[in-house]
Amino acid sequence: MKDTKNLLEFWETQMKQSHRSSNYFFRKSPSHYHMMLLVMSAHKHNQELSVEELKTKLFKTSRPKSAIIITEAVEKGFFHLEKTSSDQRKKFIKPTNSFVKEFDDYIITLKNLVL
Q: Helix axis angle, 97-114 relative to 30-44, nearest 10°?
């Protein structure tokens, strides 16, 4: 029961941190959250994820809406785009170093609550 209480307190603290824009941004919709998970999963597994692949993988989100969300995430500094040397049209989406640190801190805190 104590673990449940700690987890709920952690979640409430996270929700109150609306001043941290990533906290607010990625909780706007299931598509926003799913995008964050896809990008971070690719990053953690050292996999390349192109913008087009990301648009395809986002469930129940149109390609134009996916493009808008990706553009917003890049503009806000959570992700950045890298062009390949072989095909300048193909862009890979990567998390910024500051977002990776924020995400890692979040996961560590969450793990410590559950363990």
A: 100
Share of residues in the chain with pLDDT > 70 (%): 83
Tally of structural domains, the chain: 1
Q: How many H-runs (helices) and E-runs (strands) does the chain carry?
A: 6, 2
Residue with tokens 């959570």: 78
Contacts of 98 (CB under 8 A, 6+ apart): 77
Which domain, by its residues, includes 76?
2-114
Residue 111 tokens read as 């793990």
**Between vectors from CA 60 to CA 59 and to CA 63, what angle results, nearest 5°?**
85
CB 43 within 8 A of CB 32: no
pLDDT (tens digit per residue) in 11-61: 666 666 655 568 789 888 999 999 999 999 999 999 999 999 999 999 889
pTM: 0.81
Residue 58, both tokens: 């986002």
State the CATH number of the domain containing residue 52.
Answer: 1.10.10.10
